[in-house]
Amino acid sequence: MDRVRWCSDDFQRRVGVGPAEETVVVQQNGVCLYDGGRRIGFDNGLLSLTTHRLLWVGRPNSGESFIALPLVAVLNATMEAGGGGFLRNRTPKIVLHLLTQPALETALLALPHTLPWIDRWRKNAGGDAYAVVSSSAEDHIKLGFAAGGEKNFWRALEETLKAKPWAVTVASARIHGGPGIAGIERQQAARAHATDARLEGAFEDLNKLISQAKEMVTLSHTLAHRTREAKGGELTNDETAELRATMLSMGVEDEEERGGTARMSLTVGFGSFHTQLAHQISNLLTPILSEMENGPQSKYRHMGAGCIDLASAYCRINRALGMQLVSPEDVLKACRLLERERLPLRMKKFPSGLLV
């Protein structure tokens, strides 16, 4: 809710002209506001969707201040239906996922024309004083429609977000045929906004990847425990080797072998970083390469008997390291130390340049 700002009634009437002209699209009574999933006392108000903002006022036509959210702040809008059965009294909601406050300010400054109310969201113009809450850890707000009408409002909101009338560029708005200082500033702000959007998307994808990786580790450990329980005791040597090879191919070491640690670690004291890494590479790849030599029944027979190319080895090593990723150069340097450390693996270079 720190991206939602207080505005006065006089301020509402200053809706701009030309590209900045703001008109009402749809209105709905009986709307409650939530900061994330928490109600914050803004209940049963009038919610207005304009071409540029969402406006909420507790008592329409009373002259009291209203609160506003620029549509440029909305990343996407989703429906959260009301409950049925035991949850039949649950209010249907629209969930708005928002830009961060710094990214919102950058996005507003990147618009092709100046909006009359933009200072309420500019830190340097004292906009923080108008925030509904000083700070919020939530990245979304919810609009609760106690009196219904959520489907029509959501459709209108989706259409407006796709059209982006606040970003329409009018050619006649350019002055003297050149961008000038203001144009250069807008271009810089636009580039910064695009960078912010890409970074937010990248971090969102990274968080999903980390979450899936954790699920993979948990699944492998559950598999190991259930296999032992199903056997009613200790596994045979062949079964243990098969399970360990499967877990290693997923980038996870056996819990009991590692004392409960689910990934490789570079904290073992072998000396320098590359020496440590050489030992870890040997510990990881030796069981796999040994399995390759077991003949046509080996699950790794498609990779060649007892050898693996350096590119495939690099991928397996980084999968096993989890978040402690290493560069190709570090892996190459570590592999060159295998012979010096008298480890069971050796790196070989063929005349073609292939490293295995």
From TrEMBL:
Alphabetical UniProt keywords: Cytoplasm, Endosome, Protein transport, Transport
Which GO terms are recorded in the biological process aspect for this UniProt protein? protein transport to vacuole involved in ubiquitin-dependent protein catabolic process via the multivesicular body sorting pathway
Write the protein's name.
Vacuolar protein-sorting-associated protein 36
Q: Where would I find the GLUE N-terminal domain in this sequence?
A: 8-173
Gene Ontology MF terms in the entry? phosphatidylinositol-3-phosphate binding; ubiquitin binding
What do we know about how this protein assembles, alone or with others?
Component of the endosomal sorting complex required for transport II (ESCRT-II).
PROSITE patterns in UniProt: GLUE (PS51495)
Gene Ontology CC terms:
ESCRT II complex; late endosome membrane
Instruction: Give the main location.
Output: cytoplasm
Would you indicate the residue range of the signal peptide?
none
Cell location = Cytoplasm; Endosome
Native species: Clonorchis sinensis
